[in-house]
């Protein structure tokens, strides 16, 4: 099966404007918010036909965590449903009714965790965003893909609102219902293109991989992802970042509010850099003047003081510990041979990705390429490279495409 190599991005007249999708076909459904209404929705959806379009709305930036505050579904013959997962937190009855039904999601990795929390978990998946990536589309947002492939526009003005609000405004609910209105139509168009390009088997492997991925382990040292932390220059200041971050996270969790609304990252970095000793010094930092941050001034000062009083052995390391290779900018000094292997492997993957028309990271994860270049198999040949890739979670289609060229690239780099 030889995938076509031409770009899948269709031409579009700059002057053309696709019509805006304004109303669900059967009108705006009532929000399902009690067990009796949920049973009716389950019955309707189970009697429908074909795949089920699924979407979820979270309250990122407003609430702590990533729980769902609205779940939208649509199926041919059943119409659309809007379910309030706060009022109906157990969708296992719906999950059982749709057990053998393909569910269509856009960017499934974003919604699957919050859907799993309410016991809705597909056994068969079609991910329209991932399909778009495999087909080489440059813009894979739902709005962009719907406009290009189906010639209609979706309004996106409510994509970042506080979905935990109750009651939800009607125009928000209409926006949410329209997100699943033509998701199955998009799925059908993408499946046809995957079939035409020879990439459908690859997509099916990718969808199965998304479904079977284990839950993410809690991130080690999550405080190290504080925006602007690169400006923190010493270990004691890093300790202050850590202490402030964990206090903020505790408060955010207790109040069920986004951590950034308790205290911005910029405030944490500034306090860690200046190490204020008093409340007056702390509140001179502009971001500590916001109402909620001011309420916890003693907490912030205590956190900074803990960092100030720590023994040297208690301070965090400047760089996060990891099990992977060192930063690439150090390879040339630490292992010139590995640097040559990486350059050759990256070039090989980039060329292959261009040949099959998809982003290089969808052909093979950059971290996998780095690890292979840093610590290749003792005997470099296609079989051993394939086993290495498999051990890092590469799918069989990826291994089939890349193992031989990467083995050649690594061998050639060793000879140079």
Describe this structure in words.
With about 425 residues, the protein is α/β, with parallel strands linked by helices. The protein has three domains: about 30-210, Ribonuclease H-like superfamily/Ribonuclease H (Nucleotidyltransferase, domain 5, 2-Layer Sandwich), CATH 3.30.420; about 220-315, Orthogonal Bundle (DNA polymerase, domain 1), CATH 1.10.150.80; about 330-415, HRDC domain (DNA polymerase, domain 1), CATH 1.10.150. About 50% of the residues lie in helices and about 10% in strands. A six-stranded mixed β-sheet has the order 1-4-3-2-5-6, with helices on both faces. Helix 9 (about 235-255) packs antiparallel against helix 14. It is flat, with a radius of gyration of 25 Å. The relative contact order is 0.09. The mean pLDDT is about 95.
Stretches with pLDDT under 50, minimum 5 residues: none
Class based on secondary structure composition and strand pairing:
alpha/beta
| Level-1 CATH class name of the largest domain | Alpha Beta
Number of helices: 20
Shape: flat
Number of domains: 3
What is the rounded distance between the termini? 34 Å
Level-2 CATH architecture of the largest domain: 2-Layer Sandwich
Instruction: Give a quick account of the main beta sheet: strands, pairing sense, barrel closure.
Output: 6 strands, mixed
Into which percentage range does the β-strand content fall? 5-15%
What is the CA-atom radius of gyration, in angstroms?
25 Å
User: How would you write the strand order of the largest sheet?
Assistant: 1-4-3-2-5-6
Query: Roughly what percent helix?
Result: 40-55%
CATH topology of the largest domain: Nucleotidyltransferase, domain 5
CATH superfamily of the largest domain: Ribonuclease H-like superfamily/Ribonuclease H
Topology, number of strands = 6
Query: What is the chain-wise order of helices and strands?
Result: EHEEEHEHEHHHHHHHHHHHHHHHHH
Overall pLDDT: 94
């Amino acid at each position: 099966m030889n995938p076509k190599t031409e770009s899948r991005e269709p031409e579009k007249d700059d002057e053309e404007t696709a019509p805006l999708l304004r109303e669900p076909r059967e009108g705006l459904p009532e929000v399902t918010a009690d067990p009796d209404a949920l049973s009716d929705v389950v019955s309707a959806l189970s009697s429908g036909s074909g795949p089920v379009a699924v979407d979820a709305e979270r309250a990122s930036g407003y609430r702590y965590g990533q729980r769902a505050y609205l779940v939208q579904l649509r199926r041919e013959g059943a119409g659309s449903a809007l379910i309030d997962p706060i009022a109906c937190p157990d969708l296992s009855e719906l999950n059982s009714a749709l057990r053998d039904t393909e569910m269509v999601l856009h960017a499934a990795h974003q919604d699957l965790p919050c859907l799993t929390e309410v016991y809705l978990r597909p056994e068969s998946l079609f991910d329209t965003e991932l399909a778009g990536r495999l087909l080489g589309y440059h813009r894979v947002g739902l709005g962009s893909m719907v406009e290009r492939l189906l010639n209609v526009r979706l309004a996106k003005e409510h994509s970042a609102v506080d979905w935990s609000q109750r009651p939800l405004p009607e125009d928000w609910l209409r926006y949410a219902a329209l997100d699943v209105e033509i998701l199955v139509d998009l799925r059908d168009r993408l499946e046809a293109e995957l079939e035409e390009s020879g990439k459908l088997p690859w997509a099916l492997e990718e969808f199965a991989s998304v479904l079977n991925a284990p839950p993410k382990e809690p991130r080690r040292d999550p405080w190290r992802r504080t925006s602007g932390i690169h400006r923190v220059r010493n270990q004691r200041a890093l300790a202050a970042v850590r202490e402030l971050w964990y206090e903020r996270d505790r408060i955010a969790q207790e109040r069920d509010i986004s951590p950034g609304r308790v205290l911005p990252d910029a405030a944490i970095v500034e306090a860690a850099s200046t190490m204020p000793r008093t409340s007056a010094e702390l509140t001179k930092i502009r971001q500590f003047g916001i109402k909620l941050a001011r309420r916890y001034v003693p907490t912030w000062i205590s956190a900074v003081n803990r960092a100030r009083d720590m023994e040297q052995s208690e301070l965090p390391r400047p760089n996060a510990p990891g099990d992977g290779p060192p930063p690439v900018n150090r390879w040339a000094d630490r292992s010139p041979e590995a640097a040559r292997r990486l350059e050759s492997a990256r070039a090989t993957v980039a060329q292959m990705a261009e040949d099959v028309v998809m982003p290089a990271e969808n052909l093979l994860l950059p971290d996998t390429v780095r690890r292979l270049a840093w610590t290749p198999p003792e005997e470099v040949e296609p079989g051993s490279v394939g086993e290495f890739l498999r051990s890092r979670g590469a799918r069989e289609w990826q291994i089939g495409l890349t193992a031989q060229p990467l083995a050649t690239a690594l061998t050639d780099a060793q000879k140079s």
